[in-house]
Amino acid sequence: MAYPTVDAPYGLKPINLIGGQVYSGSTRQMPIASGYGTSIFNGDVVKPVNDGTIAKDTGTTTATPLGVFLGCTYTDPNTSQVTFKQYFPASTAASDIMGYIVDDPDVLFKVAMVSSGTTVAGYGRTVVGNNVPLVQNSGSTTTGNSGVGILAASAATTLSLPMRIVDVVSDTKNSSGNYVEAIVKWNEPYNVEATPNTTTGGHFYRNPIGL
Q1: Burial of 190 (0-12, 13-18, 19+ CB in 10 A)
Q2: Residues 83-96: pLDDT tens digits?
Q3: Can you give the three-state secondary structure of 178-203, one letter per residue?
Q4: Which terminus of the chain is less hemmed in, N or C, by CB atoms within 10 Å?
């Protein structure tokens, strides 16, 4: 049987909620600062900033996510027209930039597994239940899509890693019978043993210390 080929990571794609909860596909609009200097692509991880805006979360082995970016809208400074974009172009100057964010901490995401960089690789079901780092590849200004993947080669029980693999995707397993895509969720915040009463990491809404 021929399986579809996944030849590059494409970011985090929301597909469902854990535990069979009803999934509406809803998003929350969050502002991006005018002139923010980093492009944010569809499928990128974003984090809250203490001025009330969001920024790209570039974390790999650790992260402080608010959710996943699915596009934005703003008044184009050149045309004065409201513009909808698959990605946020770096340094865009507008006072009304709003990102669309999947911020539910229970969302499950489909994501490509890589051995490094953009190299998609196959792994057995032994990765399920492990935690994994994010791989922060550049997104595409042509498609507007993210290049983020997960480093399945480093799947481990390390509690500070940002993603938990909950399943693999059978539809795209390779000719060797290994899996190249996984279904993941945000890992939980964790305690820093050397600093009592301190919690870090995990989804922002589940971290009691806030920003």
Answers
A1: middle
A2: 999 999 999 999 99
A3: CECEEEEEECCCEECCCCCCCEECCC
A4: N
Whole-model pTM: value is 0.94
Strand runs (DSSP E) across the chain, as ranges?
Answer: 13-17, 28-31, 45-48, 54-56, 67-75, 82-85, 98-102, 107-116, 119-120, 131-132, 134-135, 149-151, 163-168, 181-186, 190-191, 199-200
CA distance 22 to 95: 35
The structure tokens listed for 186 are 């945000």
φ/ψ (deg, to 5) at 19? 75, 15
pLDDT tens column, 153-186: 999 999 999 999 999 999 999 988 999 999 999 9
